[in-house]
Amino acid sequence: MANYRRWRVPGGTYFFTVTLLERGSGLLVEQIEALREAVRRTRAERPFHIDGWVVLPDHLHCMITLPPGDDDFANRIKAIKIRFVRALPATERRNTARVRKGERGVWQRRFWEHVIRSEADYAAHLDYIHINPFKHGLVMRVADWPFSTFHRAVAEGLYPEDWAGGTLPLPEVPE
Questions:
Q1: Residue 101 burial by Cβ neighbours in a 10 Å radius (0-12, 13-18, 19+)
Q2: Of residues 91 and 45, which shows the higher confidence score?
Q3: Global pTM?
Q4: How high is the pLDDT of residue 109?
Q5: Mean pLDDT over all residues of the chain?
Q6: What domains, with CATH codes, occur in the chain?
Q7: 107 touches 85 (CB < 8 A)
Q8: What is the C-alpha separation between 133 and 37, in angstroms, rounded?
């Protein structure tokens, strides 16, 4: 079994990219209520604050902050993925390895995470989350994408309603 090196920061803020196995699928937006319920149930069991979130047809980006003293982000992401899959009928194709391991063929096995290290890093990743529907050509204005915390951020005064309305350069996420 792989031994992944992960930077764990108790009470830290983390950015994630979680992707469906079948790229090009629209499953996440087609089954948005199942995903929302998976997130709600996971937050009730293992609390975390949602700093930013966007759901695209075949992947999602999110930034969450864990409670003080808690660094268990991996099991939160795992729980969301499992709950989402259990809400779906088993109609996807599975390869031999997934069948043997009793796995569904919905999500990619791994996810990408990044520990937020500074206010500038936080702002860059929040911008990246919110610009993503525009970047992927799903909308002409960020405000037109319904599956995003952008609308909450506008209400909180973090962004103007017309931010990234199709004329601004795309923000880069620092490595």
A1: exposed
A2: 45
A3: 0.87
A4: 82
A5: 89
A6: 13-117 (3.30.70.1290)
A7: yes
A8: 22
Cβ neighbours of residue 130 closer than 8 Å, sequence gap 6 or more: 52, 54, 142, 148, 149, 150, 153, 159, 163, 164
Over 60: is that where the pLDDT of 99 sits?
Answer: no
**What are the backbone angles phi and psi of residue 148, rounded to the nearest 5°?**
-155, 150
The two three-digit tokens of residue 32, written as one number: 């948005």
Going by their DSSP bridges, the two strands 59-65 and 49-55 should be labelled as: antiparallel
What is the rounded average pLDDT of the residues 94-105?
63
Structure tokens at 13: 């803020």
The residue among 117, 10, 124 whose CA lies nearest residue 73 is 10
Structure confidence at residue 168 (pLDDT): 47
The number of C-alpha atoms within 13 Å of 142 and in the hemisphere containing its C-beta is 29
Per the structure block, which two tokens stand in for 17? 């990219």
Q: Tokens 């915390």 map to which residue?
A: 149
> Would you say how long the chain is, in residues?
175
Start-end of H helices in the chain = 27-30, 32-45, 73-86, 96-101, 119-135, 150-155
How many whole angstroms separate alpha carbon 24 and alpha carbon 116? Answer: 29
Residue type, 74: A
Q: What is the mean pLDDT of residues 16-28?
A: 94
